[in-house]
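Re-running the complex after MR caught last week's input typo. The corrected sequence lines follow. Everything else is unchanged.
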Amino acid sequence: MQQELRELYQQVILDHNKAPRNFRKIENPTNYAEGYNPLCGDNVTVYLLIDENNIIQDISFQGSGCAISKASASLMTSILKGKTVEEAEKLFNKFHDLVTDKLGDNFSVDEFGKLAVFAGVREFPARVKCASLAWHTMLNALHNKNEKVVTE
Amino acid sequence: MSVRTDAALPSVNTVYDVNRIREDFPILKQIVHGKPLVYLDNAATTQKPLQVLKELEKYYYTMNANIHRGVHALSQEATEAYEGSRIKIKKFINALGKNEIIFTRGTTESINLVAQSYGRKNFSEGDEVIITHMEHHSNIVPWQMICEERKAKLRVIPIDENGELVFEEFEKMLNKKTKFVSVVYASNSLGTVNPVKKIIDLAHSFNVPVLIDAAQAVNHLKIDVQELDCDFLAFSGHKLYGPTGIGILYGKVNHLDSMPPYQGGGDMISKVTFEKTLYNELPYKFEAGTPNIAGAIGLGAAIDYVEKIGIENIARHENNLLEYATEKISELKGLRIIGTSKNKISVLSFVLENVHPHDVGTFLDFEGVAIRTGHHCTQPIMDRYGIPATSRASFGMYNTFDEIDVLVNGLKKILEVFG
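Corrected-run output:
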């Protein structure tokens, strides 16, 4: 595999694509939203269970999409569980800056943890939407907006 | 590249020299991600031969002027070239007269023209318009729009698992309320070639006019509008090795004469006062404004090129490529071909069990292979098969058997990574 491709399709991404975490429905979610990318047909529904202290007790997703979008949703749900709503919003912004190349190389892998694997997406402008669909949908769910997120 | 010539095809006298043809397409020499370009996205658009590029250059270098207006030399030269192209197209599809050939922006605009002009005049509440489940969005949405406006009903002929029309359903659907049938000649995402002659004859027995969307058929099948007896036929230049932004609407004179103009403006009038405007004669009534003159001339050059090679020769070559590719990719584990009609144009859509088409597209791009991934503007087909998208390889006159090997090897690598 060529270098750029290897950076896009890192082992972590391939693993999460094959065995996505939190790939299920939450029966009585406090928040949920649907996201759709009409260009490629990817769709995702993100479910959240937020308690009275604004802590994300549970988060899950369902839908269909490419390896990048599935792995992104899977890693996002793994990372956000136990975080506060405010922290989730902050992470959204950081993730967004990472994949849209606003940070350049000025980011530390420690800060992003597993999310750093998505840095490879920067080289593939056509695939940024794949990585960010689940995150946009999560943000909409947090704000309990019922309209569908559409990215293209 | 080494190429299988037509040794296996006894009925052919001339050898199909694909290497010679490739010389005419400079873009095919490109390197993509360090690999030679393998262009297998011909159903989206075809590449343009030097003969077309030179004609476009010649137009802008030596004769650029507005047509049908000036008395000066350039304007006359441009008008002659533009109208000369119309005559080439008339001959190419064997229309009765050049007044039946209308230049548009492409297939989409051609269909919209008929829906907006013919449909608005002739459809009323309770009327029915029939299309098929395998239409491109461009042969769905224009009919939905006019049906909604006129309170008419849009009906859809279903397809079976192979991606073929269920003809009996069409027979049942036709009735006194049917006002129009619009059908794709060859499906862009399944490859299926529809029995359009049978459809036209049956619709005519109910006095219903038929539009044929020939966007994908025109570069592969010999089209004779008089033999088909279709009422309208639409296609684009850019899928026929011509420029983008130019297309054709063929229509029978009696229909076109009775239809109101689609757009108003210059060139479509014979006399304008603030009280009343008299419209120009056919085909100019439907060509408001300065058209894509260079595009029309380029399309004429593309038709010359295709006819020089011979559409039957191109079709035979593409059929051989399709057969070879179908056989080769069928050997891959977990691969399913979408669209398995016996009668197909050279379109090969498929899904892999564990790999999303988008990932397939990105990986193949790194092998230099350009294919299309997505819903191909045919979302109802994706829903029919319960899939979000497919990967689609589509072959043109310049593709080789070696290129198919590159595609198949690329797919093998993908299966290893995602395995």
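None of the earlier attempt is carried over here. The two ends of chain B are 31 Å apart (CA to CA). Residues 118 and 258 of chain B are 8 Å apart (CA to CA).
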